[in-house]
Structures are given as structure tokens and as C-alpha cells.
Design brief:
Elements: E1 6-10, E2 15-20, H1 32-47, E3 53-58, E4 63-65, H2 70-77, H3 86-108, E5 114-118, E6 121-123, H4 125-131, E7 135-139, E8 146-147, H5 161-169, H6 171-180, E9 183-184, H7 186-191, E10 197-199, H8 204-214, H9 240-254, H10 259-271, H11 276-291, H12 294-311, E11 327-331, H13 335-346, E12 350-354, H14 358-377, H15 383-391, E13 393-396, E14 407-410, H16 416-427, E15 435-438, H17 445-448, E16 458-462, E17 472-477, H18 483-495, E18 499-504, H19 511-528, H20 532-541, H21 548-555, H22 557-571, H23 579-590, E19 603-604, E20 614-615, H24 619-622, H25 632-655, H26 662-673, H27 682-689, H28 691-705, H29 713-721, H30 725-728
Parallel strand pairs: 2-3, 3-5, 4-6, 5-7, 6-8, 7-10, 11-12, 11-14, 12-13, 14-15, 15-16, 17-18
Antiparallel strand pairs: 1-2, 8-9, 16-17, 19-20
Helix pairs in contact: 1-3, 2-12, 3-11, 5-6, 6-10, 9-10, 10-11, 12-26, 13-14, 14-15, 19-21, 19-25, 19-26, 20-25, 22-23, 25-27, 27-28, 28-29
């Protein structure tokens, strides 16, 4: 028997230790090779009388198994290498899932006691392997995660997770974990009966062998006569409430946009009513149905594969040696600057946090104190860690302290003159090799770089608020920005464990420009006379995190007004006013309603943040409401306007060479402004609908609502040729902007 990713060791007691250690991957995954190995090992364990039991563990220091090989699954979802007809693809997918589940079934019915000795994270298919074992022992390490996160990338557990986990812990607890993709630490997993025992890491194999020798039990609970599901079966008295409430919560929280969560509910409900083998077939059917859904393919691609590629620096210039930011200068200690200082110090960088007054600089450092204290209160940090991070942040007003900085990030007011001033002062203190980055969200980098003596080392590094929680960083290339600056920016973003996208210079760049269309469309709808409650409710139903009027208040109406006024000034006669311009001017200039910042915008906000906000009643005096009730068809029309408006702008950014890689367009949209994740991103929307159909629908919307919906030349060309963004602009061939 030849094994490629498992190592076989049989001791004198007849106990086999299977050590999972894929030589071609940094983390073990359930690849096709791993499945073949595991199948061969199970056959040997079951048939060899000299074998008394088996232990499955990992040779990787960082984990047991991270789950399925999604790169292989994404290819299957797209039909790569599969039969061409839809019916053949469905059949092949279902049969492969049956084989997958039969493998785990053979493991738990092999007649020999099998132990999972879990020495690191076990997620998705990794946890499902352990659930098919008869005894689970896990190392006592709070960093270890155990869970089924498939729903986060548009999938459901396909290796029996929806059947075994509810049979261990009951439907209510299992549904909470599976539908949300929540992970458990070892002690919580033991308390919830997901694992049997937690032991020190060096005792894992010792405990596994002890159990096999002293109390072996090669039969799973659900295979024993008289087994009862904890909490009862779906139709048992009281148990049905779990599914009634679960369905209601799913629809409330997701607006039925996520088929994976809906199918998970069905898998558990239907599967618990039948024996385990029938339940596994039910799971395989729903998994197959999900894999045939374009939404699943798009989510796997954008939320896992593309995000992983970009996070590893896929857009980094290959000709530049690795760089390291040891000392960082942050200009401006406001909310953004303070957040940048915090994440950088967390990554071990020395940070100079500079502001105009010592009080402002100290306040910026205090932001880190608050975040660290919160972590300590939740057991996620220690006083020693707090002291170490805070020791790396130096609040100051003295530009001399910037000497020795490898990178400067400017996070001052969105004003060209102010930014030019700090640029000159900072560059006077740093070496020619240092890079200067601007955190501007709207002002073109090429224009800002005119204040720099070294425009080739001037770059945009656009963070999102709050910095400590937002995963995306938008890197903007000015016309003169060089490869070295780009390489350092990407290396820095990787070091602080965030995902970079690279775009070319433009007003609003990519994220701010496209995000602005969602907010603007909501304001256009309001100006048309659609009731504001309908607008924001439909925005959330579309899959956006918040309604467009809510978001406008959060960003600040006066900021939007100032940006529009600056844009009018810059564009002159080329500027085209819309119905929402008058609305915003009235709200800001005439009524002083700036948004959440002064507790009055489209909504009224309670003093001190206590209580709920409510729509400002005075809106009806500014806008005559013509639409105060809806039908399903009308709601769908509004949803389409929100989604298509953003997708059109994303395609325009592609046409104008602002964004050049479809991965960055989709990932940037989801991470940057919360574009409906279930779609896979705006370009995935167009590819899924089909360019021809999308263009035809946009022409209809333009005829009805205005030329902002008109497709550009690129989309029309793609429609004529039947092309897709991911086909025409193959990501693997794209180089740095």
C-alpha cells in the first residue's frame, strides 16, 4: 500500500497511527489524493486482523485539516473536466458526493475503534473526518478551531456534517454552528459534546492509545439500537419549534438570498427523521443542488480562491525583492490614523503617530488602549501583550521623529492643501528609499503626488473604517508610481494581515466610486418620491449590509456635499447634476442635517447613542412621497436598480483601466463596501446573468430611469461576442497595474 499524504505506523500493540502530512501543501486539505489515501488505509485497517485500532492525526504544526480542497471543488462547480450536459454534471456531482460519504461511512463501520487525535484546527471536511471517528481527543490549545464554516463561502457540509453533528449535540445547537459557520475552541467543543476529551498536546497520542486499549467502542451512537437524537427528532413534541424559529431567523437575517443556509435547514430537518444512511443521501442531494447554483461557484471563487490569491500578494511586482516595514510614520491621529497605528503595532512595527497637538496624538494612542482592554476583558489578550503593542506607538508632534521610517501613511483631512503641507514636512525627514502613502478615499493620487519630491515613491493606501475590523486595503497607483512603492505597499498590507487590491488612479478610485452609486441610487429613489422606509428596506433585502440612506448618514451628508462641490469645481461644465443634488444641498446647506455626526440626517438619532434612530418626519416636507406601498415585482425592480447600478459602475472602472483584474473588482466590492456577498461580486453578477441579457436590461433601465444605467463600449462588445469578464480578462495573466 503506497500512501502519498499519510504516513502509516503500526506499533507492537496493533495500533496504527495515520499521520496526515501533505508534502505539497502548507495545510492538510481533503484533496482527491488525500481521499484515495484514506480509502486505501481504511480498507487495510478493516481487513487486517492484526490491527486493533487506528489513530488519525496530523503532521502539520498549524492544523489537523482545513477542509475540502476548494480549488478542486470550484473547478467541478464550473464544469471543468466534467461531462458537458447539465444532466450529466448533476449525476456526476451527486455520485461523487455519495462516494465521498461512503468513505466516511466505511471509516465508522470498519469494525475497529478509530480515534481522531486533533492537534490543530479542524474545519469543514477536516471536522467531518473526526466526526466519523469513534473517539475525538483534542489538544488543550485555545487557538485551535473546530467548526463547519462552509456556509461562509456559499456551501454546506458535504461529508456528513449536517447529519452527525445534530446527532451529537441536538438540532438547535448544531444549526447555530452550521448555518453561521461558527467555530469552537477545544473546551467549548467538549462541553457541547463535539469532542470527548481535551488533553495537553503532548498527551494526544497517549490518550488515543489508552482509549483503544482500555475502553474501545467501534460503533457510533447513531448505529446503536435505541439511539435518540438529543432534543428529539424534527416532528417530536417541542423539537419542531427549533425548525420553525430557525426558518424565521434565516429569512429575517438573509432575506432568502443564501441558498446554502436554506439547504442546511432542509438537510438537518429531513435527515434527522430517517436513519443515518438515508440522511447522508439527503445531504448529498442538497449539496449537488447547491453546487449547480451559480451563486455557489461565485462565492467559492470570490470569498475563498480570489481572496486567498490576493492576500498572498498576487498583484505584487515579481521583479522587486521582498521589503519590510520596520518603522512606520502615521500622519494624523484621528479615527483612521489611530486605527492604522494599532494594526501596524499589532504586527510588530514601530509606529510614530503624529498630529498637530500632543493631546490629539495621545488621544490617537488611547484608541489602541481601548481596543486592547476590550480584548483582555474577553480573554483574547494579556497585559503583557498590551504593554508590548503600546510600547511600539509613539505619539508626537515632532516631524523629526519620522527619521528612519520605511513607510509614511498620511491620514489627514481630505484637503489638497493640508495634504500637500504634511507631505513636504514628512519627506524632509525620510530617506529617498522610503515610500509615502496617502489614505485618501477620493482625491486622485497623481494630483496629490505633485507635492512630493519623489512621485515614483508616492502611492495611495486606502483603508476602510474601522481599520481594525475592515479586511480590505485599496492600493492606488499614480501615473508616476513605481514598482518599488507598489511592492512595499503590498508587503505592508500582507504584514498587517489584510487583503490588498491594486487599482489605477481615478476620482474616487474603485471602491469609493462604486460604493457611491449605491448611496446615490437610494437618493435618486427618494427624489423620485419613493418612501424612505421602502428604499432602505429593499437595500437590505438586496444583500447590502445597510440601507443607502442609513449609509449616507453614516458617511456624513456634509462630506458628500463637499465632495460634490469639489467635483463641480474640478469638472466645470462637464459636471452633470442629478435630482439628488438638490436634495443633498437642501439637507446640508439649508437645514444643517449632516447625518449621524450631528444626530440629524435622513434619520434622527438619540442623544448619547441610547435608543433607536428613526426616519426624520420632515422628509415628507422636502419630497412628495408618491410610492408608499409595494408589490413583489416592484421590490424586484428596486433590487435590480441597486445591484445593476453598482455592477455598471464596476464595468466602467474596468473599461477605464481603473481596475484591471476581475478578482480585485469582486473581492474589493464585497470587502470594501459590503456588496451582496451571495452574488460573488459585481462582475460575477454580469457574468452570471450573461453580458447580452445584462446589456438589454440596462438599456431598459436607462430608458426608464436615466442614462446612468447605460452600458459602456466594453459591455456592448462583450455582449456581441458572448464573453465574460473572467473569460476575457483571465486573472492568472494579469500583472500589476
Amino acid at each position: 500500500m503506497e500512501l502519498k499524504v499519510f504516513k502509516w505506523n503500526q506499533d507492537s500493540d496493533g495500533i496504527v497511527t495515520l499521520t496526515w502530512d501533505d508534502p505539497d501543501r502548507t495545510m492538510n486539505v481533503l484533496s482527491s489524493i488525500a481521499m484515495r489515501d484514506l480509502g486505501a488505509a481504511i480498507e487495510k485497517i478493516a481487513s487486517d486482523a492484526s490491527i486493533k485500532g487506528a489513530i488519525i492525526t496530523s503532521g502539520k504544526a498549524n492544523g489537523f485539516c482545513a477542509g475540502a480542497a476548494l480549488d478542486e471543488m470550484e473547478g467541478a462547480a464550473a464544469g471543468g473536466g466534467a461531462p458537458k450536459s447539465h444532466e450529466e454534471r448533476v449525476k456526476a456531482q451527486y455520485e461523487s458526493m455519495v462516494v465521498f460519504n461512503q468513505l466516511f461511512r466505511k471509516l465508522e463501520t470498519c469494525g475497529k475503534p478509530v480515534v481522531a487525535a486533533i492537534n490543530g484546527l479542524a474545519l469543514g471536511g477536516g471536522l467531518e473526518v473526526t466526526l466519523a471517528c469513534h473517539y475525538r481527543v483534542v489538544a488543550d490549545n485555545p487557538r485551535i478551531q473546530l467548526g463547519l464554516p462552509e456556509s461562509k463561502v456559499g456551501l454546506l457540509p458535504g461529508g456528513g456534517g449536517t447529519q452527525r453533528l445534530p446527532r451529537l449535540m441536538g438540532a438547535q445547537n448544531a444549526l447555530g454552528l452550521i448555518m453561521q459557520g461558527t467555530s469552537l475552541d477545544p473546551k467549548t467543543a467538549a462541553a457541547q459534546k463535539v469532542v470527548h476529551k481535551v488533553v495537553p498536546a503532548d498527551q494526544l497520542i497517549v490518550e488515543a492509545k489508552r482509549w483503544i486499549k482500555e475502553t474501545p467502542d467501534p460503533v457510533q451512537p447513531w448505529d446503536k439500537k435505541g439511539f435518540e437524537v438529543p432534543g428529539g427528532k424534527p416532528n417530536d413534541k417541542g423539537a419542531s419549534t427549533v425548525f420553525t424559529m430557525g426558518n424565521a431567523l434565516y429569512r429575517k437575517n438573509s432575506y432568502n438570498n443564501y441558498p446554502a443556509q436554506r439547504y442546511i435547514l432542509s438537510c438537518v430537518y429531513e435527515g434527522l427523521a430517517v436513519p443515518i444512511d438515508a440522511g447522508l443521501r439527503i445531504e448529498s442531494r442538497y449539496f449537488t443542488k447547491l453546487m449547480m447554483d451559480p451563486a455557489s461557484r461565485n462565492m467559492i471563487r470570490s470569498l475563498f480562491l480570489s481572496m486567498q490569491d490576493l492576500g498572498k500578494g498576487a498583484r505584487r511586482p515579481a521583479n522587486v525583492p521582498a521589503t519590510q516595514v520596520k518603522k512606520l510614520g502615521v500622519l494624523g491621529a484621528g479615527m483612521m490614523g489611530a486605527g492604522i497605528a494599532y494594526v501596524s503595532a499589532q504586527a510588530g512595527m514601530e509606529v510614530v503617530l503624529l498630529d498637530t497637538t500632543q493631546e490629539a496624538a495621545d488621544k490617537g494612542k488611547a484608541y489602541s488602549v481601548g481596543l486592547l482592554d476590550k480584548q483582555i476583558s474577553k480573554g483574547r489578550a494579556t497585559e503583557d501583550k498590551k504593554a508590548k503593542v503600546l510600547g511600539l506607538i509613539k505619539p508626537t508632534t515632532n516631524y523629526d521623529d519620522l527619521k528612519g521610517c520605511d513607510l509614511i501613511i498620511e491620514a489627514v483631512f481630505e484637503n489638497r492643501e493640508v495634504k500637500a503641507g504634511v507631505t513636504k514636512k514628512a519627506e524632509a525627514q525620510i530617506t529617498d528609499k522610503a515610500v509615502f502613502g496617502s489614505n485618501t478615499s477620493t482625491l486622485p493620487i497623481t494630483g496629490l503626488s505633485e507635492a512630493s519630491e519623489r512621485p515614483e515613491n508616492f502611492i495611495g493606501i486606502h483603508f476602510f473604517s474601522p481599520v481594525d475590523r475592515m479586511q480590505l486595503v485599496e492600493i492606488i497607483m499614480g501615473k508616476k508610481t513605481g514598482d518599488y512603492a507598489l511592492a512595499m505597499a503590498i508587503d505592508y498590507v500582507k504584514a498587517i494581515k489584510k487583503t490588498p487590491i491594486v487599482v489605477n488612479d481615478s476620482r474616487g478610485f474603485y471602491t469609493s466610486r462604486c460604493f457611491g452609486t449605491y448611496v446615490a441610487e437610494g437618493q435618486e429613489m427618494l427624489a423620485e418620491g419613493i418612501a424612505p422606509a421602502i428604499i432602505d428596506n429593499v437595500g437590505r433585502m438586496t444583500g447590502m449590509p445597510r440601507g443607502p440612506l442609513e449609509l449616507a448618514d453614516d458617511v456624513a451628508l456634509d462630506l458628500a456635499y463637499k465632495v460634490r462641490e469639489q467635483t463641480k469645481k474640478d469638472l466645470g461644465a462637464k459636471y452633470e447634476a442629478g435630482p439628488a443634488d438638490t436634495l443633498i444641498e437642501t439637507m446640508v446647506a439649508k437645514l444643517g442635517r449632516y447625518g449621524r455626526k450631528n444626530l440629524k440626517g435622513f434619520y434622527d438619532y438619540p442623544e448619547g447613542g441610547k435608543g433607536k434612530k428613526r426616519l426624520w418626519p420632515g422628509l415628507k416636507d422636502i419630497v412628495k412621497f408618491k410610492v408608499t406601498s409595494t408589490t413583489p415585482d416592484y421590490v424586484e425592480e428596486l433590487r435590480k436598480r441597486f445591484i445593476y447600478r453598482q455592477a455598471i459602475e464596476a464595468s466602467r472602472c474596468f473599461e477605464e483601466n481603473v481596475v484591471t483584474d476581475p478578482r480585485e473588482a469582486d473581492v474589493g466590492a464585497i470587502l470594501g463596501w459590503g456588496f451582496a456577498p451571495y452574488t460573488g461580486g459585481p462582475l460575477s453578477v454580469i457574468d452570471t446573468v450573461g453580458a447580452k441579457t445584462f446589456v438589454e436590461e440596462c438599456d431598459r433601465l436607462a430608458q426608464k430611469y436615466g442614462k446612468r444605467f447605460l452600458p459602456g463600449r466594453l459591455l456592448r462588445d462583450m455582449a456581441e461576442k458572448g464573453e465574460t469578464f473572467y473569460g476575457r480578462f483571465k486573472p492568472e495573466t494579469k500583472k500589476a497595474a
